[in-house]
Amino acid sequence: MNILISNVRLLDDERGVRRDVYISGSRIAGIDEKPEGFTPEVTIDGSHRLCMPGLVNAHTHAYMSVFRNYADDLPFEEWLFGKIDPLEGRMTPEQAYWGTMLSITEMIRTGTTCFIDMHMFPNTCVRACADSGIRAFITRGVVGEDRRDEGGQRRLREAFEEIEYAKSEPKAHVRFGLGPHAIYTCGEDFLRYVGELAAERQLPINMHLAETQFEYDSCMKEHGMSPVAYVKSLGLFHVPVILAHCVHLTDEDMESLCDPNVTVVTNPASNMKLGNGFAPVARMLKEGICVGLGTDGASSNNALNMFREMGLLTLTQKGANLDCLALTAEETLKVALDGGYRAAGLADEGGRVEKGRLADLILLDEEAPNFQPKHSMKAALAYSSTGFEVTDTIVNGEILMRDRRLMTIDEERVNGEVARAVSGF
User: Of the candidates 278, 267, 373, 276, which has an alpha carbon nearest to the alpha carbon of residue 310?
Assistant: First the structure.
């Protein structure tokens, strides 16, 4: 499809100059300069709109939206093992599908065009991505004691089968990795094995790490090293690796995380809500560590709104460090965009409104009252935005939301199916 976004303001232009953005197929075909032979099938009036790259939610569990506002104000261990795990054990793939669709609905409405997911229901996330048009990086969460563990082997088979299944869903814009859940749910031999498989099959790794003080203390006691040092010693940094949380770190960990294969994903709302602390993001960035931003699942956030997460990130870093310059608005946007696109393996394809880049774009209402006056749109996005200023969402050159109207999702049906799914909780 050929799309023209006319007379729109671009994120990096604080002067407010209006531009024309030409989209052809899945890519941006030109800025201001009309491509030869281009005839728009759809023209979007960008007057009073800001155009920017769509956001990447770099860590979430999309099916978990069915647990939103269900298990709150609980310690981490009680929340996970006492409330969430038992419910997950009773969930059906169909319930997980509708939970994922609800999450995608929220993400499209608030400007997320790609999410990095760890799930436990094979093929449901792929189906939801194909049906909605959103982009995703998908990992089936795996746990196991060692490489002979039958449950672990089954989960890994499901992960590889899902990669094959995705080939039958041409509308699914998805990439894959392997998802060892955490060091407290995966034994040492199993983690080594997953690392070997990832290297053999050239797949990235996505896992939780150094999230809680208990995890850190237990790893020090059992292995004599921090969680980061432990995972690195098992060879998991030999492939691109996404490490969610990284709240509890040593000075040596900071050095290890500078590895070009590593992207840390911080999740400030989830970390605060579960009482796990504040990841040292400001210091990570100063040390040269690549950091992305995620929401975590809706059961521990309880939103999947990346603009809300950006505001929390910059404010908590300032407060935790007693430094108003700890993380600026511009640095926060860089984390949300550059870090997220790198984590998703899209650093060279997206994250910029430039000719040749992926047409994963969002438009926001510049005239929203919380954006006035327009001293700095970057400051407005980091400090003022609610996420619901987003008016249009485009992924891979397809319009998923137009003038706040969802084009690929029947929101009323999603809400009804989710209500039925949770009626037995």
Answer: 267
| Percent of the chain predicted with pLDDT > 70 | 100
Residue range 45-81, pLDDT digits in tens: 999 999 999 999 999 999 999 999 988 888 888 888 8
- Does 303 lie in the same domain as 188? yes
pLDDT value, residue 89: 83
Helix and strand counts by DSSP (H, E) for the chain = 16, 17
- Same domain for 397 and 273: no
Quick one: CA dihedral 300, 251, 182, 219, positive or negative? Answer: negative
Q: How far is CA 342 from the centre of its chain?
A: 11
- Whether residues 71 and 126 share a domain: the answer is yes
Range in 6-20, 51-65, 119-133, 292-306 with the lowest mean pLDDT: 6-20
Domain with 86, as residue range(s), is 61-343
6 contacts: CB under 8 Å, gap ≥ 6: 20, 43, 44, 45, 46, 47
3-state DSSP of 55-80: EEEEEECHHHHHHCCCCCCCCHHHHH
Q: Residues 35, 118: one domain?
A: no
Claim to verify: residue 248 and residue 120 sit in the same structural domain:
yes
8 with 105, same domain?
Answer: no
Q: How many domains does the chain have?
A: 2
Are residues 24 and 65 part of one domain? no
End-to-end CA distance of the chain: 43
208-236 pLDDT per residue, tens: 999 999 999 999 999 999 999 999 999 99
For residue 12, the model assigns a pLDDT of 86
Burial state string for 12-47 with b = 16 or more CB within 10 A and e = fewer than 16 = eeeeeeebbbbbbebbbbbeeeeeeeeebeeebebe
Could you give the CA distance from residue 423 to residue 408 in angstroms, rounded to a whole number?
26
For 26-172, strand residue ranges (E) read: 27-31, 42-45, 49-53, 55-60, 112-119, 135-142
| The domain boundary residue, chosen from 312, 343, 374 | 343
- Smallest Cα–Cα separation from 332: which of 374, 368, 381, 376? 381
The reported pLDDT for the residue numbered 220 is 98
- What does the alpha-carbon distance between residue 122 and residue 361 come to, in Å, rounded to a whole number? 28
The residue among 80, 102, 309, 326 whose CA lies nearest residue 208 is: 80
Residue 30 main-chain phi, psi, to 5 deg? 175, 155
Q: Which of 232, 170, 167 is nearest to 205 (CA)?
A: 232
Is 203 in the same domain as 259? yes
**What is the sign of the dihedral through the CA atoms of 178, 240, 355 and 57?**
positive
